[in-house]
Design brief:
Strand content: 15-25%
Shape: elongated
Structural class: alpha+beta
Distance between the termini: 102 Å
CATH superfamily of the largest domain: Histidine kinase-like ATPase, C-terminal domain
Helix content: 40-55%
CATH class of the largest domain: Alpha Beta
Strand order of the largest sheet: 2-1-5-4-3
Number of helices: 9
Number of domains: 3
CATH architecture of the largest domain: 2-Layer Sandwich
Radius of gyration: 35 Å
Number of strands: 12
CATH topology of the largest domain: Heat Shock Protein 90
């Protein structure tokens, strides 16, 4: 006649069997020898086996032996001995005549009943569709990146063509005012083309500002500085990395302010240097464009409408939730774009009456 302890163990086993069999998740209850004590209906349905067929068999004998994987055997053996527990172990399973399935295995030793008759609970999660979706997503992202690079190259080329047409038109017109407007428009298109060209040469994603600004200023110097022994552009920046859309705004600001300095800081192509610097600390950052040229006009300057470049810099600064600060360098000028944690009023984002950009 069975004693109380034996009866309790029997009741525990029966309860465990009932719970495993009725589970919605694919479960296997294994003994210490890794033989199947019970299999849930969901496991049997998922892997097309019958509960009575697998009961008492080794887990490695399921189906045509596709579960007999050395790594899985080693992990389950270690779990049965209490030396380990399987957490999210991924395997590829290929049942005969069926497609490959990607499974995530979890297993742990249960502490109940008779210690001499250990039990393991093994959970199987089919992630085949999820992995396939991830693969498709990755392929789409790669295709998108390639298409984006192609679009950037085409946009840069188109802007170069537009700039050439504007310059040809400027040479042909008789009106000096019209010629000036066309040249200004040409310079704006060239500045945007320069930014676009630098972005097209980088990979999609985050942009490291120091090499980006250096390439940008090198292109500006090559196209606008006639005598590199007299004028130069120097870039110093920290290791900040920003999103591509932020780099576009910063690149346009740098381009406009460098062009403005080259046009107005050194009359009659005088000698001088322009310095571009970017520093960040936490969420605060400062972009500064400094020159050692003639500086701001002295005294009260007559009111003037801002140029297209000035308006662009002010708009981009507002977009970045930053403020503009202009300082007389004596000699020269420093224009700083200061980004803070919170947005500021439009009244702080105005350049003084330096000659219009």
């Amino acid at each position: 006649m069975a004693g109380p302890a034996s009866a309790a163990a029997t009741i525990s086993d029966q309860l465990a069997l009932a719970m495993v069999a009725s589970s919605d998740a694919p479960l296997l209850l294994l003994d210490g020898d890794l033989a199947i004590v019970a299999a849930s209906d969901s496991f049997c349905a998922a892997f097309e086996v019958q509960p009575l067929e697998v009961s008492g068999k080794s887990v490695f004998e399921i189906g045509a032996g596709e579960w007999n994987l050395p790594k899985l055997r080693s992990l389950l053996t270690a779990t049965a001995s209490g030396l380990a527990a399987i957490k999210d172990y991924e395997i590829d399973l290929t049942p005969p005549g069926r497609d490959l399935r990607c499974l995530v295995i979890k297993a742990q030793k249960l502490v109940y009943g008779d210690p001499s008759a250990p039990r393991l609970l093994m959970t199987v999660c089919d992630v085949t569709e999820a992995r396939l979706a991830e693969k498709i997503k990755d392929e789409l992202l790669r295709e998108k990146a390639v298409l984006l690079q192609e679009v950037q190259h085409r946009v840069a080329n188109s802007l170069q063509i537009i700039a050439s047409v504007l310059m040809q038109s400027a040479r042909k017109v008789q009106s000096e005012e019209t010629r000036k407007h066309l040249k200004d428009a040409h310079q704006r298109v060239m500045s945007i083309a320069t930014v676009q060209r630098q972005l097209a040469s980088t990979q999609a994603g985050d942009i490291e500002l120091r090499p980006y600004f250096k390439q940008l200023c090198h292109s500006l110097g090559a196209s606008m500085i006639r005598d590199h022994n007299k004028q130069s552009i120097e870039v110093t920046a920290d290791d900040t990395v920003v999103k591509a859309d932020i780099s576009i705004s910063l690149g346009l600001i740098v381009t406009e302010l460098v062009i403005n300095a080259l046009k107005h800081a050194f009359p009659d192509e005088g000698a001088g240097k322009i310095m571009v610097d970017y520093r960040s600390e936490g969420r605060n950052w400062t972009l500064s464009i400094e020159d050692d040229g003639v500086g701001m006009p002295k005294g009260k300057a007559p009111a003037a409408s801002p140029g297209l470049g000035t308006s662009l810099v002010e708009a981009l600064t507002r977009q970045l939730h930053a403020t503009i600060k202009v300082t007389d360098r004596n000699p020269g000028t420093i224009v700083s774009i200061v980004g803070r944690d919170q947005t500021t009023g439009d009244g702080e984002n105005a350049l003084p009456n330096r000659p219009a950009v």
